[in-house]
Write a structure and sequence with these properties.
Chain lengths: 339, 333
């Protein structure tokens, strides 16, 4: 039976109902993770500027609601696969900040023992099956992960993240078609920050919303305000339920914005400072704090305590990670192949 | 190989038997690719497997080589043991991102915390009139990617034993199946057996000259050896069977004995695996035993042409090996 494709208009705000349905600890968890992501990215940038980082980095400041709102819907044993701008997903999936910071710094004690770095943080044991640095490259792999879940009759699901630019890759098309045909337990999430390096989405695709692409795979597509953590939560939860019940994938387009450049080499020649400032006013963290306080879920003091706890955790992680040992170049060949 | 083996089956049947036996043993093994189910595979390798194993484990796919490779990579990351069939090795160009950037690298890149146990079965080689986009031998590309193993069997016996070893291996293994070998018959035991990947085999012993050949070049080299034996030239044919990891010992030993090395492969000469084999000898103790320069006999540096005469001329044939070996055997004497 063919699934009728449902393309919804942009969901502007998350439902107020969720605020009262979700446990207090869950909402606190969400806010604290968002703050941790923000502070982690700022710390990463600071360490870079101080010359303590060897490689490049892709910061997700401004996009915290997308990773947290989606991963908040998961069970702890569910899985994610993501991309080069992946610090947010990694933190939301429960990574240890110190081990993660160690990886960013290329230390032996990092998640990938310093072999992966910022673009390839994976926490396999924690259900984070890794970040790929080739745009769209994780999407075909996610077909196989979800296929394995289906063949083993598992009730786990996979969230597969990619950016707006990835949806112009051939691998996106092949993979969504295959996953849809086989009704695989995966939710495709587009972290739409509107720019593929310097190219605005409007210059590289002739559609209004990326979610419209779902139509060609016969799956539901939805564009949500990716700066509203509750809107993201609601949309992804619905897609999760569809995936978990064997009905197949969905495409959720989380419309947001990256405040920083694409990577360390970016001089922001393709956008105005006015545009960046406008989006800073839509800060997802400030917005969520306000929602929580306005609805009397939390006091301002509680909200700021969570924020402060996040900052302290990131500061401590960096402090400890900087003291970790460098990996040794000896016997690297022995690690290439599994025994 | 046991001399008692009486049963003869084709290379193609040996591959099917290897996959079927592994699938009976381990439910995590499955076959995925274009037209592998009802059609039985473009060359008939998986004929009848759908009936035994069902459509979930003998899985027909859309024509999507990138997603097929991704499906295999992801399933392998989860611990399953997919066998991916690409219809022609040439189409691996479309799968390459998944194979080279994902499958080959995940283990190392993620700090050794995962493994990717998968097999990529790839019908390779020319001789069928399929022209430039359905006839390539791309082993040299993949040998240059740390994280992938490359196997190229030349007999039905080796095809079965090496495929079983490849399925049980915990890494991505590119398994080259030469299309002209599919119908070749040879003795193959019915019971399951595996051949260690890093194990070259001396296919024929001789004292005068070593030919290192793999895939289709092995039967051609053996035929050439028979012809030259009538002229009193005794050729040793060494089949590496697995290009990566390479059993250099067997090759070095043979060349140390004969003092002459001819390398034969079908892929184009420039940048071909023959250069690697030559370098292995050049920097080994066998170098001191060389009585003549190392010679490479490989494909000409052209895309495979359609016309029968041109196609034949593009890659080494038996008569080319005979001529090259005869000349090398006499060189410096």
């Amino acid at each position: 039976m063919v699934t009728k494709t449902k393309i919804e208009k942009v969901v502007e705000t998350g439902s107020q109902r969720l605020l009262h349905e979700l446990p207090h600890e869950k909402l606190a968890w969400m806010l604290q993770r968002m703050c941790e992501i923000r502070y982690f990215e700022e710390k990463a940038e600071d360490l870079y500027i101080r010359g303590l980082v060897h490689g490049t980095m892709h910061l997700s400041i401004g996009q915290e609601a997308g990773s947290v709102g989606s991963i908040a819907t998961l069970r702890s044993d569910d899985l994610i696969i993501h991309h080069h701008r992946g610090h947010g997903h990694t933190i939301a999936k429960g990574a240890d900040l110190t081990i993660m910071m160690a990886e960013f710094l290329g230390k032996e004690t990092g998640y990938c023992r310093g072999r992966g770095g910022s673009m390839h943080i994976a926490d396999i044991a924690g259900g984070n099956l890794g970040a790929t640095g080739v745009v769209g490259g994780g999407i075909p792999t996610s077909v196989g992960i979800a296929l394995a879940l289906q063949m083993r009759r598992s009730d786990k699901i996979l969230l597969s993240y990619f950016g707006d630019g990835a949806t112009n890759e051939g691998e996106f098309h092949e993979s969504l078609n295959m996953a849809s045909t086989w009704k695989l337990p995966v939710v495709f999430i587009c972290d739409n920050n509107q720019y593929g390096m310097s190219m605005h989405v409007s210059k590289v695709m002739n559609i209004e919303h990326i979610s419209e692409r779902a139509a060609s795979y016969g799956i539901p597509g939805k564009t949500v305000d990716g700066n509203d953590v509750l809107a993201v939560y609601e949309a992804v939860l619905e897609a999760d339920e569809r995936a978990r019940s064997g009905e197949g994938p969905s495409l959720v387009d989380c419309l947001s914005y990256r405040w920083r450049g694409h990577s360390k080499s970016d001089r922001n020649l393709y956008r105005t400072s006015q545009e960046i400032d406008d989006w800073k006013h839509k800060c997802p963290i400030r917005r969520f704090k306000k929602v929580l306080v306005d609805a009397a879920i939390m006091t301002t003091d509680e909200v700021e305590a969570l924020d402060q706890a996040a900052k302290t955790a990131v500061d401590r992680a960096a402090e400890v990670a900087l003291t970790f040992p460098e990996p040794s170049p000896e016997n690297m060949e022995d690690e290439v192949y599994a025994p | 190989m046991t001399t008692e083996t009486k049963r003869e089956i084709t290379y193609l049947e040996a591959l099917r038997e290897a996959m079927s036996q592994e699938m009976r043993l381990d439910k995590e093994v499955f076959l995925i690719g274009e037209d592998v189910g009802t059609y039985g595979g473009a060359f008939g390798v998986s004929k009848g497997m759908l009936e035994e194993f069902g459509s979930e484990r003998v899985r027909d796919t859309p024509i999507s080589e990138a997603a097929i490779a991704g499906a295999a990579t992801g399933a392998a990351l989860m611990g399953m043991r997919p066998v991916m069939e690409v219809m022609f090795m040439d189409f691996l160009t479309i799968s390459t991102n998944q194979l080279v950037n994902a499958a080959a690298k995940m283990r190392f890149m993620f700090g050794g915390k995962c493994s990717i146990p998968m097999v990529i079965r790839a019908p390779s080689g020319s001789g069928t009139g399929a022209a430039a986009q359905h006839s390539q031998s791309l082993e040299a590309w993949f040998v240059n990617v740390p994280g992938i193993k490359v196997v190229a069997p030349s007999t039905p016996y080796d095809a079965k034993g090496l495929l079983i070893a490849a399925v049980r291996d915990n890494n991505p293994v590119l398994f080259m199946e030469h299309k002209l070998l599919y119908r070749m018959k040879g003795p193959v035991p019915e019971e399951s057996y595996s051949i260690p990947l890093k194990s070259a085999e001396v296919k024929r012993e001789g004292r005068d000259l070593t030919i290192v050949a793999y895939s289709i070049m092995v039967p051609r080299a053996l035929e050439a050896a028979t012809i030259l034996a009538a002229e009193g030239i005794e050729i040793e044919v060494v089949d590496p069977r697995c290009l990566k990891p390479l059993d250099t010992e067997t090759i070095i030993q043979s060349v140390s004995k004969t003092g002459r090395l001819l390398i034969a492969h079908e892929a184009p000469t420039t940048g071909g695996f023959g250069g690697e084999l030559a370098a292995v000898i050049a920097q080994s103790e066998a170098f001191d035993f060389l009585d003549a320069p190392i010679r490479r006999l490989a494909g000409r540096d052209v895309p495979i042409p359609y016309n029968r005469t041109l196609e034949r001329a593009a890659v080494p044939q038996v008569e080319d090996i005979v001529a090259a070996a005869r000349a090398l055997a006499q060189e410096g004497k």
